[in-house]
Write a structure and sequence with these properties.
This protein has about 375 residues and is of the alpha/beta class. The protein is about 50% helix and about 15% strand. It contains 15 helices and ten strands.
């Protein structure tokens, strides 16, 4: 499954790499709403939650579905501004219908609203939006009722809430992360200018790539839970926004009529390179075989030759070699040559990323 962005015929200079204050603020709000998604930021989330004024905390809770499980499209700008105020001004220029649809999709948990008649003008669509919001919970229902009854008033409330976040915690955090975000965006732009779009896109994440089809079409492909497609050709290009607080998420805005946006985790020197979902699946499948799991438990305790593994488990050397090849291809082993012997050992650091329960089990 994937989201694809058609960039056929699009000049490389239409691929924009730049930080966004509004997008990073909403990444922070997501961390505060879903701290379990971001264990590395537990300290920041706890200290920030403790310092936010209670009245602001209540307002954030009333609207957290705008950024909890997905992000309203208008909160991830296609053309970022220099300041949060600039970007909020741009949001103010969006017409009520686009704003309301974007807010209701996150509130109601249904992208079907984007393809329906406008809930602002069509009574059936209005009633359907209210029903979907009510099914999600009373807070969502109350927010949807207020939004549908008086969009300008709700828009003003959301803007004031985001402005209050700036003074409460965002301004300090933004000053701290902006240098890293700007450096990452410059690096990706340099790759684009000197190495081409394929390398710049591949540097975003192992889950993102540029495909050149036999039909001559170029598509950015992002590994996501859903299958969707959009085009950047008619929307002026694609925007790539680095994030520190959004890690490990890849956030894609691909709604019709919006410039496609991808918010990606900025590179950090002290973090291991992320792996693709396909590689995780390959590793799980490699470990699912009972013989390979026995071999892994043996190699977790130290390096072994093929002959030693065969003798330990009453297997033939060719059979062991076949299993070792599968484990090596999945990136689970390290190797060391000693004379004419090759020694194999479980890569404990890499295996630990599969989970502490797995590592503890194989080391028992």
């Amino acid at each position: 499954m994937s989201v694809t962005i058609d960039i056929t015929g699009l000049p490389d200079e239409r691929l924009l790499f730049t930080p966004s204050p509004l997008a990073e603020l909403n990444a922070m709000l997501h961390v505060l709403a879903e701290p379990a998604h971001h264990p590395a930021l537990h300290g920041w989330a706890s200290s920030t939650t403790a310092t936010i004024p209670p009245e602001l905390s209540e307002r954030l809770l009333e609207a957290d579905f705008l950024w909890r499980s997905s992000r309203a499209d208008f909160l991830v700008p296609g053309l970022p501004g220099a300041t949060l105020a600039d970007e909020l001004d741009a949001v103010d220029r969006i017409d009520d219908e686009l704003y309301v649809t974007g807010a209701l999709i996150t509130t109601c948990g249904s992208s079907r609203l984007a393809r329906a008649a406008s809930p602002l003008t069509d009574p059936a669509a209005n009633e359907r939006a209210r029903e979907l919001a009510l099914a999600r919970g009373p807070r969502q229902a109350a927010f949807a009722d207020r939004l549908l009854a008086d969009p300008p008033a709700v828009r003003a409330l959301v803007r004031r809430m985001l402005e209050d976040c700036e003074s409460a915690f965002f301004a300090d955090a933004w000053r701290r992360v902006l240098p890293a975000l700007a450096a990452d965006a410059r690096h990706k732009a340099d790759l684009l200018a000197h190495r081409g779009a394929a390398e710049a896109v591949a540097a975003l994440s192992p889950a993102v790539g540029l495909e050149q089809g036999e039909d001559g079409r170029r598509r950015i492909v992002i590994d996501k839970l859903q299958d969707n497609a959009t085009s950047a050709v008619d929307n002026g290009g694609v925007t790539f926004i680095p994030t520190v607080f959004g890690r490990p998420h890849l956030l894609v805005v691909h709604a019709a009529g919006w410039r496609p946006v991808l918010q990606y985790p900025a590179a950090e020197a002290d973090l291991p390179e992320p792996v693709s979902l396909a590689l995780v699946q390959q590793r799980l499948e490699a470990l699912a075989h009972p013989v390979r799991l026995r071999l892994v438990r043996t190699m977790a305790r130290g390096p072994h030759t093929t002959g030693e593994l065969a003798a330990a488990w009453q297997l033939s050397a060719p059979e062991v070699s076949r299993h070792l090849a599968v484990l090596r291809k999945a990136g689970l082993l390290t190797t060391e040559r000693r004379g004419r012997y090759m020694l194999y050992q479980l890569d404990l650091a890499g295996s630990a990323r599969l989970g502490s329960d797995f590592l503890e089990a194989v080391l028992r």
